[in-house]
Prior knowledge:
Blueprint: H1 11-17, H2 19-30, E1 31-32, E2 37-38, E3 52-57, H3 59-75, E4 80-84, H4 85-91, E5 99-105, H5 111-122, E6 126-131, H6 137-141, E7 144-147, H7 160-180, H8 185-196, H9 198-206, H10 209-219, E8 224-229, H11 233-248, E9 251-256, E10 273-277, H12 284-296, E11 300-306, H13 307-312, E12 319-323, H14 331-350
Parallel strand pairs: 3-4, 3-5, 5-6, 6-7, 8-9, 8-10, 10-11, 11-12
Antiparallel strand pairs: 1-2
Helix pairs in contact: 2-7, 2-9, 3-7, 3-11, 4-5, 7-8, 7-14, 9-14, 10-14, 11-14
Amino acid sequence: FLVSKGNHRHFMEKEIHEQPEVISHTLAYYLDFSKGTIRAGSAPVDFAKIDRIAASACGTAYYAGLVGKYWFEHIARLPVDIDVASEFRYREMPLSKDSLALFVSQSGETADTLASLRYCKQQGLSIGTIVNVRESTMARESNTVFPTLAGPEVGVASTKAFTCQLSVLASLAVAAGKMRGTINEEEERQLVRELSEIPRYANQALRLEEQIETISRDLSQVKHVLYLGRGTSFPLALEGALKLKEISYIHAEGYAAGELKHGPIALIDESMPVIVIAPYDRWFEKTVSNMQEVAARGGKIILITDEKGAAASTLKTMHTIVLPNTPEIIAPIIYALPIQMLAYYTAVFMGTDVDQPRNLAKSVTVE
Ligand code: AGP
């Protein structure tokens, strides 16, 4: 097939902008918006009979799974073990037949993820895979395929596949909560309504592009960047750091905000930008106190928050990116957009090959 860049400079830019549309397609597969329910048959797994999810994936897909862990545990009270596939496959983790083995992959061909899938299959587990390429090996070898409808992703740095994976994971967590009786009908309707709002919020996030381009000019001058987040923003911090290093080659690390004082705080000085991902949620106050520790040491803070968070924080920041106030469940999906755009524009300023960064392949089919 031939995919064109259209009017965009890079595939990555195009794929960032496609997100409201492809997320909307993906959600429509799992959710019945008119009834406000999970679509019958879209999650053909009996989550009530499952005692645990054993999940694994690589790179960005792994970070999606990590956000999913918070959702499954919070909404459906279903424990999730998650690991990078290259560790999982050799860990010989004791697996119960009542667990669901869950894999997340854009390509469906990543060698380590595929090996983990085959390992779980041998152990007699039921295999579910969230996958973008329907004809892929993983899709063929799974008992249940949970498709993402992102369309072909060409840029090596994953963007729309990630937010579609998150949309599927959130929908599945709601489906699991319903089957396990941890949410009632009214709560299901409320969550489905909130999920249906993702495309609208994502469009609003895209409007921050100009401001993010300006911030990226500053970022392209630095050597190191730290990303911090708590709760579901923690995997986002990891994803932000991965995206930046992949395409701009700037060294970046993502940390759980609470871990700052256990080591990385030693790195903070006037030359260190710290990107703090902090929607106004139940973790906000704690993250702000971590931000204070950064500010007290002269660290330059770039705060990504919402209107409520911007009003509540009195700290001096170098930049504040203000998103609309979002329901908690959809925040990680909306906050993915500014971190993708930050990485994208920084790479553009650095003049790197955004769609084909050095040393990287779109799909890693070797160990
Ligand atoms: C993301 O930007 C990366 N290029 C990479 O981490 C990727 O997500 C990983 O290799 C997994 O690929 P998959 O989703 O095709 O399995």
